[in-house]
Design goal:
about 475 residues; 14 strands; globular
């Protein structure tokens, strides 16, 4: 098994990460990335712990050695449940606040490797490539992120009609030993911390866009590959008391620049193929597996959110108030919907002719469609419960050390059940979850997690069992006419 220390050492591989106008020398030491890197390293240690062996690993079909369950292709309902328990363990260690841990993109490659014939339609070598890389990633415990959305330059035009054909990441040269990629792609959440980047496109492509219709993997430290991180929320001036979540779980999002990046043929599984580039998401279980993990993570985050609200109510002494009971009941009801739909992914899962289990399309996409609608409402409930509590806190941890301030803080900022320091620590946690830059990014992240809400709703519409629904209507129309 890969240890957390081994993982951290692997990040010092010359990767080109840029932040605040400079190239980052060491992502494990830079204050913007240090805390998140250590949180991810801890996940490797949790998985490698002997007491967690059964929950977190399964025997590699190739070597027999224990490998992460994130790479297990489910063939039974019990297999899918085992994947859920694996992801739940990691999500609880990060409170659901790191959306692109290793198990997310691993799910996509499980889906690809489960249905290699899709890629073989363009040549057996492409199917062999995707299966071979899946097995390597599985047996070496590799961490993949992905960039599958083209840049927002001019969405009124397809990729090949942009002002410059190398704005979107695509093929600019074909060689005997591989291809060369230039252009940009987003969003690469967690890319700073990954071993490999998976480049493809989930947006609809048109005839003429063939150069951008690819699927490939490339090492993060590949020559010419550059990651431009968004503004980092974790800063050197911060401490874990004032910013308890930001300091640990800001996984970063990056714009990816391909500056004539060479990719060997063995790392390419889709090449200039519009149909397969589209079908990789819908005619394999890849999108279902990756987003099953995403819903495990989201449900864990909602439990954490509910726990924050409950602790706050207990601290303020409002927990027994009828109005508080009512809004907490609404919050608990919404969280229960997501918990139940997550379990339904497994219960309603189906097994295809190849013996591969597919989570339920309808319940998965139904949950994702509701996520963009209801996440904001759940956050609003906590804001209503908090009132002014989050914006009447001491300015910083240092205030507790001030002789002029500390006595008054201790007297006036306590609650009926907590001393001032404990109360402020709880409210700082809630503010970091809800109102800080880190919290605001999470609100935006969840709203567009599955893409624009209308796209997710179209997925629900595509997979819903309308035949059964219409059959009920037809049966009602054909009732006996005794009284007519």
């Amino acid at each position: 098994m890969r240890s957390g220390a081994e993982y951290l050492r692997s990040l010092n591989d010359g990767r080109a990460v840029f932040l605040d106008g400079e190239r980052v020398a060491d992502v494990t030491a830079h204050p913007a990335f240090r805390g998140a890197a250590r949180s991810l390293a801890r996940l490797y240690d949790i998985a490698a712990a002997p007491e967690n062996r059964e929950r977190m690993t399964f025997p590699s079909p190739k070597t027999g050695e224990p490998v992460l369950r994130a790479w297990q292709i489910p063939r039974t309902h019990a297999d899918l449940r085992a994947r859920r328990l694996f992801s739940e363990t990691w999500a609880e260690a990060t409170f659901g606040l790191m959306g692109r841990t290793l198990d997310h993109v691993a799910g996509f490659f499980c889906g690809y490797a489960a249905t290699p014939r899709l890629f073989a339609a363009a040549g057996q070598q492409f199917a062999d490539n995707v299966v071979r890389f899946y097995e390597r990633a599985r047996d070496q415990h590799l961490y993949l992120s992905y960039a599958i959305v083209p840049p927002q330059i001019d969405r009124s035009k397809p990729a090949h009609k942009q002002s410059d054909p190398t704005l979107h990441a695509g093929v600019v040269k074909e060689r005997d030993d591989g291809i060369v990629i230039s252009g940009a792609q987003q969003l690469a959440t967690g890319g700073v911390f990954s071993d490999y980047l998976h480049l493809s496109c989930i947006h609809p492509l048109q005839p003429g866009d063939e150069n951008y219709a690819n699927g490939l993997v490339v090492p993060i430290n590949a020559p010419g590959l550059k990651l431009f991180s968004r503004r980092a929320f974790a800063q050197a001036s911060m401490n874990a008391f004032d910013h308890p979540l930001t300091m640990r779980f800001d996984e970063s999002d990056s714009y990816v620049i391909f500056d004539n990046v060479f990719v060997p043929w063995e790392q390419v599984y889709i090449y200039r193929n519009l149909e397969i580039c589209r079908d990789q998401w819908w005619k394999t279980p890849a999108h279902l597996y990756g987003n099953h993990q995403a819903q495990v993570r989201y449900v864990t985050k909602l439990r954490f959110m509910t726990g924050l609200a409950k602790r706050m109510n207990e601290m303020t002494g409002n927990d027994a108030q009828p109005p508080v009971n009512i809004v907490m009941g609404e919050l608990a009801a919404l969280v229960s919907v997501y918990e139940s739909m997550l379990l339904a992914h497994e219960v309603a899962a189906t097994i295809d002719a190849d013996g591969v289990l597919w989570p339920s399309h309808t319940t998965l996409y139904g949950a994702m469609a509701l996520q963009s609608e209801f996440n904001g409402r759940m956050l609003e409930i906590i804001r209503e419960l908090a009132g002014s509590a989050m914006i009447t806190l001491p300015s910083a941890r240092a205030d507790f050390d001030s002789p002029q301030m500390a006595p008054d803080i201790a007297r006036y900022m306590r609650s009926g059940s907590m001393d001032a320091r404990s109360r402020v620590a709880l409210m700082r946690l809630i503010w970091d979850f809800l109102g800080s830059e880190f919290g605001s990014r999470h609100q935006q992240y969840e709203k567009f997690y599955g893409g624009a809400s209308f796209l997710v709703k179209q997925n629900v519409n595509r997979f819903y069992d309308y035949a059964r629904a219409k059959a009920l209507v037809d049966a009602a129309l054909n009732l006996p006419k005794e009284n007519s």
